[in-house]
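ok so for the tutorial part 2 we go from a plain amino acid sequence to predicted structure tokens. step 1 is just haveing the sequence, like this:
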Amino acid sequence: MTNTIGSLTSNLWAWLSIGFIIAGVLCFLGYYFSGTTSRKRLLFVGTFVLLALTLFSFTAAYMTYTDAQNERLAIVFSDSMEVREAPKKTGTIAFELHAGTKLEIIDQDGDLGSY
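step 2 — the prediction. this is what the tokens look like for a chain of 115 residues:
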């Protein structure tokens, strides 16, 4: 389910939600003004299906938006940087990152400035 929600941006999910609610209102109006019983049944069920799709797409838009706001990324701009086992100059070097590497910041200790 997360892959489905994350497959579209929050703006696109919001536009889908608006489209579903407009289609739901049109479906309800069709139900209200319809003369035949079979058409009324179809439009009545369609109204609730579109309402469920509206709620799903609105929830997906909210979840995608909050995920994007909580994601903290960084990109290495220097040619290379050493990652140490401890957050101090005397820590042993664990590995090296090169320019253009995209990182996710999961914790921060003090200022993120360069050494």
